[in-house]
Structures are given as structure tokens and as C-alpha cells.
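Case study 2.
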Amino acid sequence: MKHLRLLFAFLIILPLARAVEPDASPKTPQALIAVLNAYPPEMDAMVKEFGLDDPRFAQKSIKGFRFYRGEVEGKDVLVVETGMSMVNAAMALQLALDHFPITHVLFAGVAGGIDPALHVGDVVIPDQWAYHCEAAYFNPDGKGGHHIAEYFKQKYPNFGMMFPDDVVATRSGLDKFDRVPTFPADPSLLALAKQAIAKLGPVKGDRSGRVLTIEVGGTGVTGPVFMDNAAYRKFVFEVWKARCLDMETTAYAHVCYTNGVPFLAVRALSDLAGGQEGKNVIDDNESTSSVNAVRVLRAILKEL
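Prediction:
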């Protein structure tokens, strides 16, 4: 009888012990694809295309940056308006990477066209990104040249007093900062972009009715200035063979390089960065071009 009482007690206690036993296999945090934009027309396009104002998107604010978490094309996404310019871009993206389980970073927005073969409305998805304003500024020497500091090793042609240089960067596996001429887009995402573009077929611009050029490849460049100068536009194309120029993307690519996260950016041309006659046309085209970029990005999300 004593043995039966002990067995009965054991059978009662065993389920209770199992109930309080810690979970040996905690759930993995839900992986997210970060989808970035930089300023209001780009954000407006995402609100319209993705339905960010729907309650199904959860909103969170961290240090003033707003994050929208939800689903697009069956993918769990985190939409972020980073703010314009390189510092805001880098700060917002690093904040997102530090607080959310992000596996990929995608961007959609507008840019100035640098490649003379491209027109306003066209969409480019560069395979690498560089800073065009990382530079040294030197005094003229009065003989047609400049007083160049001894440390400086000129790698690129100069634009007057402006002598471009490579930025330095670091990441896991490096024991010091190293010069990085360009930051890459992810090869797998580039391949998916090509698939998405092929499935889209011809896309007409809303204003002109012209079939837009939508291409993958080439170099994009970034700097802390709104560029609207024909001479400098020509210089940037000659030095970097750049297809487009903006104020954020290389900063995103730089942050992704350091964090080891796959990155891709879609830029639709809102203007020609000074290549036009007369005033810049960005105000007339930023909304339409933002929508074009977001729709291409959505097609890429569908392929993921």
C-alpha cells in the first residue's frame, strides 16, 4: 500500500513539473525584410501601394523614427522612412537593425539621372554604390595646379579644388578600417530583380506615355548635396560611369556591408541632376517616379 501511495503522488507531481519546465526550444523571432524610403513623396507612395495606414500594420516609434510592421506580397516587412541625407539614412537603418530581426534591406525612391542614356521616369537598380563627395579640398598653387597634402594619393580626376577619395569602412573579420571604393548590392537580390522586371513587361510613364527603361546594373553614387549642375553631372559620369545620383543610398549600402545584411536599391529618376535646360523638374515628377520605384520594388518582393 505504501508503494501505491508513492506511485500515486509521483503521477500527480510529474505533470506539474512538466508544466513549469522551461521551454527548451524558444521560438525564433519573426524574420523581417526592411523596406526603406527617404522622404515624404516616397513614403506617400508606400502608404498608397502597401496600405500602411491599415490597422493590420503595427506602428512603433524609436527615437522619433517610425516603423511600420506588416505583410506585403506574403512577406513580413518593416517599412521605415529614414529621412533625407546620409546621416539620417545610416542612423535610421542601424537603429532598425539593432531593434528588429532583419534579414534583407530594400529601398525604393527617386534619384537624379546621370547616365545620358536615361530619361526622367526611368528606373535603375545599380549593382554597386559609391560616395562622390568623399574628398579633399585643396588650394590652387597659382600654376594651374593645387597644393596637395603629402598624405593624399590621388586616385580619381579632380573637379577644380575637389579631389575625390575612397571612404574607409570596417566589418566582422577585419582588424582595421579598409578603403572601400564601392559597396555592393546583393547578387541574389539583383538576380531576383531581373526576374521581376522580365515579368512586369513594358511599363509606361504616367505623364509621357513613353515605355520606361527599367534596368539592373551599373553604379549609383551618393553625396550630401542636392545636385543640379551640368558640369559636375558630366564629371560624375566620366569618373564613376554613374547611372544615378542621390543623397542616401550609399549610406544604406555601407551600413549593410558592415552588418553583413543583403541590400538592394530601386531608384526612379525624378530629374536629370542638372542635365536639363532651365529649372530642375523634380517637383513635377517626384510623386510619379516614387510610385514607379515602389511598384518595381513590390514586384521584387513578390519574387523573394
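Residues 204 and 211 are 4 Å apart (CA to CA).
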